Amino acid sequence: MTEKKSTPNTNRALKTRVKTARKRTLASTLWLERQLNDPYVAQAKRDGYRSRAAYKLLEIDTRYHILKRGQKVIDLGAAPGGWSQVAAAKVGATEGAGKVFGIDLLPVATIPGVDFRQLDFLAPEAPQILTEWLGGPADVVLSDMAANATGHKKTDQLRIIDLVELAADFAVQVLAPGGIFLAKVLQGGTETNLLAMLKRQFAEIRHVKPKASRADSSELYLLAMGFRGRPE
Ligand SMILES: C[S@@+](CC[C@H](N)C(=O)[O-])C[C@H]1O[C@@H](n2cnc3c(N)ncnc32)[C@H](O)[C@@H]1O
Question: Sheet of 114-118: strands edge to edge?
Fold first, then answer.
């Protein structure tokens, strides 16, 4: 029988893999601990929401009254579906009053009153698919999209800025006058250009940090209200 000799290189590679696996186990243990101790996670279970994120939208809506019966709402980055559930209830989607369209990279189990498609918003054809699917202007564009964190702060910030800029470009293409755009951004990460564009297109811009958004997270929401409409 021949025995495989370990070289310094294979030893080093093995050590790195063990280290990475340990880090991952620690991260998932911490995540699990946080989920188990999170009052919003427990509340979401009791209230039948798919995610604790539902309370962020509920809180923003209580403060700014963005969702109303009969509206057409688009929910970008909808999985697992908390925001879509809130929006569907507020617009009366199950009674045929309003409509909610959700998209995500991930699948979403059926939500009453919500039309869902598994779609990458960054795909070049996505805005056209969405516009045709909407079949007319939307009243509210929501984006809770977040790319998987790389752990590298600058990269994560750039990826989220990319998503929010594209979501904003899309919103100004599809919103009806008076429409609302709500998107997740990172603290200190809202591009000056994006803010300047939104200030031109909307009557009121706010940065909102709902209580349900974890205090140790740099997540923040950009709320643009009163879309001025596209020039004829
Ligand atoms: C924080 S979660 C959304 C939670 C959701 N608002 C809720 O209430 O359940 C962010 C979602 O954005 C989605 N996402 C990230 N990049 C995306 C992309 N390019 N296209 C579509 N969805 C995307 C992720 O798959 C993830 O499900």
Answer: 114-118, 99-104, 72-76, 138-143, 175-186, 219-227, 202-208
Do 28 and 59 lie in a common domain? no
pLDDT of residue 116: 97
Instruction: Assess whether 57 and 163 both reside in one domain.
Output: yes
Between 192 and 35, the more confident residue is: 192
* 24 and 66 inside one domain: no
Is the beta carbon of 170 within 6 A of some atom in ligand 1? no
Kindly state if the Cβ of 120 falls inside 6 Å of ligand 1. Answer: yes
Q: Give the burial string for 58-88 (b: 16+ CB within 10 Å, else e).
A: bbbbeeeebbbeebbbbbbbbbbbbbbbbbb
Q: Is 104 annotated as a binding residue?
A: yes
* Residue 24 confidence (pLDDT) above 90: no
CA of 40 to the centre of ligand 1 (A): 19
Q: Is 83 annotated as a binding residue?
A: yes
* Same structural domain, 112 and 184: yes
| Same-domain pairing of 32 and 54 | no
| Parent domain of 32 | 8-37
| Structure confidence by residue, pLDDT tens digits, 36-63 | 678 899 999 999 999 999 999 999 999 9
ipTM of the complex: 0.99
Candidate from 84, 105, 141 with most ligand 1 atoms within 8 A of CB, to mutate: 105
